[in-house]
What we know:
Elements (H helix, E strand, L loop, with lengths): L5 H14 L1 H4 L1 H12 L3 H29 L1 H21 L3 H29 L6 H8 L1 H19 L2 H22 L27 H5 L2 H31 L4 H28 L3 H19 L6 H29 L6 H29 L2 H33 L1
Helix pairs in contact: 1-6, 1-8, 1-9, 4-5, 4-6, 4-15, 5-6, 5-9, 6-14, 6-15, 7-12, 7-14, 8-12, 11-12, 11-13, 11-14, 11-15, 11-16, 12-14, 13-14, 13-16, 14-15, 15-16
Amino acid sequence: MKKHAWIPVWAIIIASILISFEYGKVPPSQPSMIEVLGLSYTMQGLLMTAFSVAAIAMGLIGGTLIDRFGARKIVSIALVVSIVGNVLSLFWTSDAGLLVSRVMEGFGYGAVMTGGPVIISAWYAPAKRGLAYGVWGANVGVGMLICTGAANPILAVSDWSGMWVFALIGAVLALLMVAICVGMPADEDRQDLFLDDGSKAEKDAKHGVLWGYLAPLPILAALMFFLVGGATDAFNSFTITYLNVELGYDYGAANLCSFIASIGLLVGAVIMGFVFAKAKDKGLVLIVNIVLAAIGLFIWFSIDLPLEATYVIAFFIGCVLGAAPTAFFAVAPMTARSKDTVGSANAVIVLGQNMGTLVIPTVVGMVLDASSFMMAAMVMGGVSVVALGISFAWRSLYRKKMELAK
């Protein structure tokens, strides 16, 4: 590992937190947007959906572009598009204008989230990626916490546009971090060419564009991320409602419980970074994590305990759920078909993450409308059990890959 490898690695991590302000600015701004712009509830949902769809599209396209042209160039261009979109929305405030701007903002977010693991794996050897991947797995959570903390003072002196300016500043700083500090090492210094045992991977022959996207292990990881990550998003989306409406906690206590769970998400992500980097049997780590996640999701919407006990359980469930994204992001460089397709492998995994965010919370919401929180828990735990089955297949294939590589 090069002496100054930490500079590009932590620059892209910080940039990912800064650009996540574009994602996190909408929820706290919604009441103001309803009051000032007359925004409908449908439009609120579309603003988040448009952003996510653009991020998915950029993730898929960006994987190939990053593999071909380099992370700094592609991520920088996409961040410029995000900045232009943000500025545009401050002046073009119709529904159409806001939707167009959200699509543009999603491009930068998708590019950063796809490029980050590529950069980390290129600079850090597998055994050294623990902390970096741990923080990376929590980047969106950190960004959301910052947005939530900044929202009250900003909205006290401004309307929704104050949060947009806050996110714009974050996007500009993210662009500066990437343009100035982020780059890729020379081929002879790249650490993503090494396997877990320290041996050097052989370079593959040239293949078509889709070859990198169709690697079996990243596809299986994406499916697990879709299921477990989506269930985690549903946990985050409906926890306050469950505690406030179903259990009768006051809003402040419910919000605090959600905040404690968010802290658990961050703690779990960092711990998993170290564990996954050092573990010999990475498949077993995934299996154990998903088992614990399934248990937590099955029981969460059925607990009715004293408030202090609920806080403790929320923290530990948060830790378990927060650990999973770190592991999924970490597997891309280890399971890509070659060092030239790491971006493509990561794009597939990011696709699974974003599709889970779009689909699973919506399904859980439909279950809540038609049934109960108990049934919603069955859905959230059930999809995690499906992910558990996939994790056994992933472990078996990963072992075969390592044996063939040796």
